[in-house]
Amino acid sequence: MSAHSVNYRLLDQSHSTARVAPLWAFIFELGYFNAMNCGLVPPRECLNSFLKTGRSAEASWEPFEIDTEEYAALEAQLLNPDLSALSKYSMHGWQTFTRDLALDQYDDLAQWQAKAREKHLQAWQRQMARLQHEMVMRAHKG
Predict the structure, then answer these.
(1) CA 83, CA 90: separation in Å to the nearest integer?
(2) At 20, phi and psi to the nearest 5?
(3) Residue 76, exposed/middle/buried by CB under 10 A (0-12, 13-18, 19+)?
């Protein structure tokens, strides 16, 4: 298990909220970043490139990097999250992550994301539409 915790500010149109979460739960909070990746876990070099920026469309944090061991733990937690634990940190437990090792040849984040979208965008959009439909159906039943 990755012990790395992230102090971050979740940005909103009118304000920001300070939060602390384990790294894997923090990644779930980054919906825009995850959408740009079509739900794929990026290779460590690409993820570190992103983490070193200290910002995304919806959050800001102190820039950092993770090592190989932390990445392995993070990947395992993203692919098989503890949804009960995740619910304490994020409302985005509906997100799912996969890994495409064939894309590991790209170590530039922008290039990796472009290749990920080229290869996985249609399948990811179908998955998001299915999840949205399931959420709407549950809301109508409840």
Answers:
(1) 10
(2) -135, 135
(3) middle
pLDDT in tens, 43-85: 999 999 999 999 998 899 999 999 999 999 999 999 999 999 9
Nearest to 44 by CA among 2, 83, 13, 86: 2
Amino acid type, 139: A
The residue extents of the domains of the chain are: 5-141
Which is more confident, 34 or 20?
A: 20
CB 70 within 8 A of CB 23: yes
Mean local confidence (pLDDT), 24-47: 89
Rg value, the chain, Cα: 15
3-state secondary structure 3-18: CCEEEEEEECCCCEEE
The yes-or-no verdict on residue 12 having pLDDT over 90 is no
